[in-house]
Design a protein that fits this description.
The protein is of the alpha/beta class. 54% of the residues lie in helices and 11% in strands. The longest helix has 36 residues, at 170-205.
């Protein structure tokens, strides 16, 4: 909206903007920034207005219901007004519930799957009535995904994975491979001079090879050799996870990590087909063995790992099993919902993440 408004402004006042290209660029950037800021404030206030919010009623007592309820209560700008949360519905309470929903002018009812399964006799009639009253219905797992962009792994059952993770996406996978090849070919040519300079700087500043090779786990649990510019001292030993202010990092290595320039050699891996631009992070063999203890961890290996991905831009690098499990929730969300549109969002968020991490 800001971009279009800025262009229209230039066309409407064309005679006024007959300035040098640099001045035009500064004016355009200023107009765009101000409008973008105002739009963001306006949209935020708009979503907080109760008249325009989706009035939501929760039924269930699972942790995903509680987490979603508390988050929406603290973040009204998301666009949902919380009405009530009810642990369950007993037989004979159907009519009272329907009256309450109508009285409160509820737009959406979020129900735990477990309650639906256990009390089919009670909820079947309620669901029909809700449909007749144009009240939307969502199960708690799907709604959790919408709000948090991850899946509630701790509460999922095996049949969920059979239903959602077994779908083939041949057209998408083929298109992704073609785009990977074209992009890596272009970037390899553009970044070749910079890569040579970085390699020379590494060789001059510290002993050891410029390129660091490491075994990682890829698609179908197969290992491959990942390439990066060496950012640590040669033959450095230590923990499996890189820590903040890690003493193993060289001075140049800190800069390469900070700017993500150490990842340029991974273009070779993309060209070889070991990884894609987008996908779950390829973990070290030793870490993958530790993480394999986590429930459903093998699911992240049904697709190629990536240079960047949904988990990488939504959660910090993991330094424990608990954090690895949290990232797994995002990885499974990506695998379930992978598409060209989601990949496009990841690219935009990666750009945002890159600049945000350098502030």
């Amino acid at each position: 909206m800001s971009f279009l408004t800025s262009i229209i402004t230039f066309y409407l006042f064309q005679s006024f903007f007959l300035l040098t290209p640099k001045t035009n660029l500064i004016l355009f950037s200023l107009i765009f920034s101000v409008l973008d800021y105002l739009f963001r404030i306006g949209i935020g206030q708009f979503l907080k207005t109760k008249e325009w919010q989706t009035k939501t009623f929760f039924i269930g007592n699972s942790s995903r219901i509680s987490e979603t309820f508390n988050y929406l209560k603290e973040n009204p700008q998301v666009g949902f007004a919380i009405s009530h949360i009810k642990n369950t519905i007993n037989s004979g309470e159907e009519e009272y519930l329907l009256k309450e929903l109508k009285k409160e002018k509820i737009d959406l009812v979020v129900i735990d799957e477990e309650i639906l399964e256990l009390r089919k006799d009670v909820f079947l009639g309620i669901l029909y009535e809700l449909a007749d009253q144009s009240i939307s219905i969502s199960n708690s797992t799907d709604f959790f995904e919408v709000i948090f962009s991850k899946v509630p792994l701790r509460e999922l059952k095996d049949d969920w994975f059979v239903e959602h993770m077994g779908t083939s996406r041949r057209f998408y996978e083929a298109g992704k491979e073609v785009s990977d090849f074209l992009i890596v070919l272009t970037l390899s040519i553009l970044l070749l001079p910079l890569s040579l300079l970085i390699a020379m700087a590494i060789k001059i500043s510290s002993k050891g090879p410029a390129i660091y090779a490491q075994k990682r786990i890829g698609k179908n649990n197969k290992s491959f050799t990942l390439y990066k510019f060496r950012s640590m001292k040669n033959n450095a030993q230590g923990t499996l996870w890189t820590e903040s202010n890690d003493k193993r990092l060289t001075k140049l290595g800190k800069f390469l990590r900070f700017t993500h320039l150490d990842e340029i050699p991974q273009l070779i891996n993309i060209l070889k087909g070991d990884i894609s631009f987008l996908g779950p992070r390829p973990e070290r063999v030793e870490l993958a063995e530790k993480y394999s203890l986590l429930p459903y961890y093998r699911m992240r290996h049904i697709v190629k790992p990536g240079l960047t991905g949904w988990a990488q831009i939504n959660f910090r690098p993991s330094s424990s099993l608990e954090e690895a499990y949290e990232k797994l929730c995002y990885d499974v969300f990506y695998i379930k919902n992978r598409s060209f549109w989601l990949d496009f969002l990841i690219v935009l968020k990666t750009i945002k993440y890159f600049f945000a991490s350098h502030q």
